[in-house]
UniProtKB/TrEMBL annotation:
Gene3D superfamilies: Diaminopimelate Epimerase, Chain A, domain 1 (3.10.310.10). Its EC number is 5.1.1.7. The keyword Transmembrane does not apply. This is Diaminopimelate epimerase.
Length: 278
């Protein structure tokens, strides 16, 4: 089975062409392929499929086999995959996800996509739709305790759930200890992606993420979008900012007129391979 390894800011997934192959159990395959010792090694897998609603459809599975509604870094790579492999000759395409149809505007250099801007749609701020158990609306300052410390979270869904808290220093934050506790906290009925964010200035945020189903990753596109929204709601940042992640930078804008969030960032192909284990 042929696969392509790609990343967006170091958030790496294995891309499978669902036009050519039929994957019977993607959850189980995600667990095996993502394993960094016994598999290819990745944060999860992504299936590229035909769609009746859009130009293409994507399904993404975290490293633990759980399916996520949306993935910001993967959707840029799906755009690159279909353009570079000549499955489309358009640089403006639509991709169907469990979080709705998203629109991509791709930059091509020397015949290949290097960068894409994605209309990520409107952020979801209603507690029951995120979902988070909270009486707040929007959910700004929901206190969740982990290891004896109370964290004030702002909760935002970009189709998938995020909980964002602001810290003084992301570099020295004990993410491996706090992240797993927040991910499965009872206030988050569908679990949560947890973002720990340092404000650098009005136009720059630094973020580390503990992803639902994958643990710490080098970047999270939906997480960067949710973080910018949280930054605006907490009056810490303007409506357009650079979100600096361990694996690179994303530019995020929350447009006031449309209420849509736009994410811009790179998409990179690392290698192609053949999976021999069935
Ligand atoms: N890394 C992704 C998000 C992947 C899904 C997430 N772990 C979830 O379960 O919601 C991104 O770039 O958005």
């Amino acid at each position: 089975m042929k696969f392509t390894k790609m990343h967006g800011c170091g958030n790496d997934y294995i891309y499978l062409n669902g036009f050519e192959i039929d994957v019977a159990d993607p959850s189980e395959l995600a667990i095996r392929m993502s394993n960094r010792n016994f598999g290819v090694g990745s944060d999860g897998i992504v299936l590229i499929l035909p769609s009746e609603k859009a130009d293409f459809r994507m399904r993404m599975f975290n490293a633990d086999g759980s399916e996520a509604e949306m993935c910001g870094n993967a959707i840029r790579c799906v755009g690159k995959y279909v353009y570079d492999k000549k499955m489309t000759d358009q640089t403006n395409i639509t991709i169907d996800t469990l979080a709705g149809v998203k629109i991509l505007d791709m930059t091509v250099e020397d015949g290949q996509v290097t960068y894409a801007k994605v209309d990520m749609g409107e952020p979801i701020l209603k507690a029951e739709d995120i979902p988070v158990v909270s009486a707040l609306e929007p959910v700004v300052g929901e206190v969740v305790e982990a290891l004896g410390t109370a964290y004030a979270f702002t909760c935002v869904s970009m189709g998938n759930p995020h909980a964002i808290t602001f810290v003084d220093d992301t570099d020295h934050f004990p993410l491996e200890e706090v992240g797993p506790i927040i991910e499965v906290h009872e206030k988050f009925p569908r679990k949560v992606n947890a973002e720990f964010v340092q404000v650098v200035d009005q136009e720059t945020l630094k973020m580390r993420v503990w992803e639902r189903g994958s643990g710490e990753t080098l970047a999270c596109g939906t997480g960067a979008c949710a973080t910018l929204v949280a930054g605006v709601l907490n009056e810490k940042v303007g409506r357009k900012a650079t979100v600096k992640l361990l694996g690179g930078d994303l530019i995020i804008e929350w447009d006031e007129a449309s209420n849509h969030v736009f994410m811009s960032g790179p998409a990179v192909t690392v290698f192609e391979g053949e999976w021999m284990l069935g």
